[in-house]
Specification:
This protein is α+β, with helices and mostly antiparallel strands and 459 residues long. It has two domains: 9-319, no CATH class; 343-458, no CATH class. It has 15 helices and eleven strands. Helix 12 runs antiparallel to helix 15 and helix 13 packs antiparallel against helix 14.
Amino acid sequence: MSFIKAKPNIVENYTLFVIPSWGHLLGYPTLGTYSNQSVSKISQDLVVFFGAADSSVLTEKGTLYYLFGLGYYYTKFELQSGRYITDNRQLTGLVLSDFVYDYLATSKNVTLEDDRDVIVSENLFRVPLDLSFKSENKRTFIQGTLMRNLFIPYKDVFLEFMENLKHPNFLQVYKTGPILLSTDWDSYNQVLLSSDMRGDNKANFVNPTAGINKITFDSKKHLERFYTIKDLKFIEDLILNLKEVYSMIDYDPMYLFSILINASLKLRPRISLSRAQKSSKPKYKMPKESAFLSAEERMDAFVDWPETFKRKTKNELEKSVVRVESKLYQPKEEDEETPSVPIFREEQKEFKIRTMKRPKVFAKQLPIIPTSNSLEILLVIKEIVNQDYDIRSIARALETARDYIKSMILHSNVLWEMSKYVNLYMKVEPNVGLSSREKDELMEQIERWINLISKIKSI
């Protein structure tokens, strides 16, 4: 890429920055691949950053915006083979081209429209780490809003991210170099790694994942076009300082806003120092939200989404996939012409076939499923499985149960696992029941759900 050499504007800015769906923001460019298999469906693709600084750079193609800090790309998806996977990628930077930034900054607000410091929109959550300059009533309202709309729905992602941050090998920027999630015109929807990444680290980072076009070794070269060695050392030091803070802070898993409260206490000297760099914001309504402080000068400018990166809907993208038949829970009887083996082997083979064979069953009316008590819902589902209903009826019952439980905002892993069974069982031919092996596995899974929800209710 050619560019105009100009000193980038780097602004220390300690924030929580979350894009709830990377695919939705970019218009679903790809489903991607994982372990040499095609992805058929993406259920979640969250980008979380504990930001330390943002920056803007003018190039001949337009303006690029950078966020530097501790980042996490988390995704849940389904492979064409029928496997359900969760995966993540650690990040130290986010690169947004001007048309992506403008799309993000003009997203429709969900709430807090009168507060320019806090953004809660359909494409972005952004909140300053330190809210001490807000009134007590305002802080209470912001905390409640973020708990309802961010920390409860994505609790598992935050807990996983915080747990990973405790590990010494996680986000070792001095070993890995910069890791950028990019929408630069020349590296659109790519993860950029450093060519200086040391030793065995490369093997752990180069594997493709859902929702990303490509992973390439270009991050150091990319940044050196715009930033001096001194700039990059300053950014690296900020990230290392953040890692030290977030890897050691205490927090309440049931009240995840405590992460921000405790991090702001640790970082307060840096936050106070950085405020001198911040531009004064007008109180009147602006055309865009101020997602980055370094973007204040472009608050009146807007770049349209280019045809080169044509947007699609999630439904359009997933429908374009040529599905392959799932082999999960589709056992084939063994070849009867194989050489004879001792009798006990035959007995084992016959037992295995018997436990995996799906019986023919008659469809029957499902019982009424409760609507207001999650444990009662799961007990009814358990009884449905125990009474040998056909698989499609079990899928419908699980789907109804999942939707009722979802309205109660309970543990997201339960909802994910229930969805997995719904998707799997809906594909089965009519009038067949669960094999004894499938039945046992599903009963064990329901027991785990019941135990988990019982623990949550007892807290």
